[in-house]
């Protein structure tokens, strides 16, 4: 298991083959002056139709003019998308996962100088019989939410069950295929962003009226870990 305190000290990983996008992202209410934290996901991914495996690059960046505080990035999967690994990051304990999610990893990003970014290779599986979403919250070391991208869907309106893989677009609700395909509407179909906020040191993200990170969940877990585990 990777140690949470091990952040990527070197340059970002290789350039994404397709442009990255901050679609579905919104800042938290208490971002420090001069700091502009954001995240990016690839605008397109491909899912292997045989194995259901896919790879994603999750990027956190500081578009501001001042160095950021120490940051924690969460990579969280929902519904048909399950996050199986994030290089250099720790899995969120099962009992501490954000409500409604099925998997998640926590990455100790460290500080980001103005204009700098850090990218993390993400491994995931996607059940093409359903609809999958991903969420990238970013918090400071005290658990105050600075940014949240998602939960945003990846999907296609043109299923390709006989092809080697299926391309999925960011921000698109998937049209499932297969005998057990689910046709239930995705909560993201309205196009509205989940609200963000941090009334205290615990990050609280809203998703369709329910709490994504709540007391006893990943937010509190992050704020209560021994300080030695964050370095």
Number of beta-strand segments:
16
**How large is the count of helical segments?**
1
Q: Please report which band the strand proportion falls in: under 5%, 5-15%, 15-25%, 25-35%, 35-45% or over 45%.
A: 35-45%
N-end to C-end Cα span = 16 Å
What best-fitting shape do the alpha-carbon axes yield?
Answer: elongated
What share of residues is helical? under 10%
Structural class of the secondary elements? mainly beta
Q: Can you give the mean pLDDT? A: 78
- Would you identify the regions where 5 or more consecutive residues have pLDDT less than 50? 1-16, 183-217, 227-231
Query: How many whole angstroms does the radius of gyration measure?
Result: 17 Å
Describe this structure in words.
This protein is mostly beta strands. The protein has 1 helix and 16 strands. It has one helix at residues 218-224, and strands at residues 20-21, 25-27, 37-42, 44-48, 53-62, 71-79, 81-86, 90-91, 101-110, 117-126, 132-140, 145-155, 165-170, 196-197, 204-207, 210-211. The strands form 3 sheets. Strands 2, 4, 6, 8, 9, 11, 12 and 13 form an 8-stranded antiparallel β-sheet that branches. It is elongated, with a radius of gyration of 17 Å. The chain starts with 19 loop residues before the first strand and ends in a 7-residue tail after the last helix. 43% of the residues are buried.
Name a few traits of the molecule.
five-stranded antiparallel β-sheet; single chain; elongated; mainly beta; about 230 residues; about 5% helix; 16 strands; 1 helix; eight-stranded antiparallel β-sheet
